[in-house]
Amino acid sequence: MSNEAYTLAASDTAVDVGANDIDYKKALGADDGGLVDTAVEAIKGMAGKVVDKLDPLTEQYAGLFKTGLRTPVMRKPSDYDMDFEETWFPSMDGVPLEAWFIPAPSDKLLIINHPMTCNRYGFPGHLPEYKAYFGGFEVNFLPELTALHDAGYNILTYDLRNCGRSGEGNGGISGLGLLECRDVVGSVRHAREHPVMGKMRTSLFSRCMGGNSTIIAMAKWPDEFRHIEALALLNVVSGPTFIERGAENLGLDPAAAAKRLDERCRETTGFSVFDFRPQDYGHGVTIPTFVAQLRRDFLIHGEKDGQEIFDSLAAETKELLWIDQSNQRFYAYNHFGQHPERLIEWFDKHMA
């Protein structure tokens, strides 16, 4: 059994986009209570709202978990000298999904899934309306796609439901993987039934919510994935860790925060925040799996959560890479665009 862990440290890298730590306590106002107190004052007098210091934090996450954030597809493969086809296909439940097929001269195909608030291109964090989210820098997947394409991989990458240019599903409600898992099945079916992609050997690369969706889909519908050869996961995450770490960052009670967020998620979507745990579905992942996680992620308990998810995976062959260049979660989404070697090495090894 291969069960290996590696660490990639800041000293191993050149200058990376987002590869710097931020003083999260200062950024959050936790050092003087400024953010929380300001937010509490702002919501005083709102009918039906319990005004305490947990409310701004729980409302922020409840809103994000309810609908996510639809962002524009700002770049395309031709900007990086790659030929591509605009295509589309239905999710397992019929939601229309918009995609790119980037052909390469090989019989190897990667189906790629994106994180929450992102789309197949990345995340426009450099634009004014999105600068307040996740570090204020752009996440651009095109360099990563270029590296994989140059290594000989055909690519099918698409927008999950309620993201990018794909259709609205479930009234716009996000499932943090519990609904989006149907999109993963839709993408796998589309590739399998396609006259060109259907003749290719296929693996999956899934990030964050896309990774959660993949893990859940493999547990729910294992027969759909019998032909998949390998899997790579980046920054997969459970729901409760966001609110627990957020409360700790602000000097609040993490258990009370998780309970309050659970109540708000049930009130807004019907889901419990404790439903959003890929650890509970790891038994369905049995193919060779590479997991990369940001260790010092200030938004979550990165090392604890990442290790738990990794340990839950049933795959006999699996490897864990810790990324240590930054404490900013969205840095990890630029990481393989700037350091693609380990990702390519994994697929080369298991699709040889």
Would you kindly provide a written description of the structure presented here, covering whatever features stand out?
The chain is built from 11 helices and 11 strands. By secondary structure, it is an alpha/beta fold. The chain has a 9-stranded mixed β-sheet, with helices on both faces. Strands 5-6 form a two-stranded antiparallel ribbon. The longest helix has 15 residues, at 254-268. The chain is globular, with a radius of gyration of 20 Å.
Give the integer mean of the pLDDT values: 89
Number of helices: 11
How would a textbook summarize the main sheet? Answer: 9 strands, mixed
SSE-based structural type: alpha/beta
Count of DSSP strands = 11
Describe this structure in a few short sentences.
The chain is built from eleven helices and eleven strands. By secondary structure, the chain is of the alpha/beta class.
Question: How are the SSEs placed, and which strands pair?
Answer:
Layout: E1 2-8, H1 24-28, H2 34-43, H3 55-67, E2 85-90, E3 96-102, E4 108-113, E5 122-123, E6 139-140, H4 142-150, E7 154-158, H5 181-193, E8 201-207, H6 209-220, E9 228-234, H7 240-249, H8 254-268, E10 289-294, H9 302-312, E11 317-323, H10 331-338, H11 341-350
Parallel strand pairs: 1-11, 4-7, 4-8, 8-9, 9-10, 10-11
Antiparallel strand pairs: 2-3, 3-7, 5-6
Helix pairs in contact: 3-8, 4-10, 5-6, 7-8
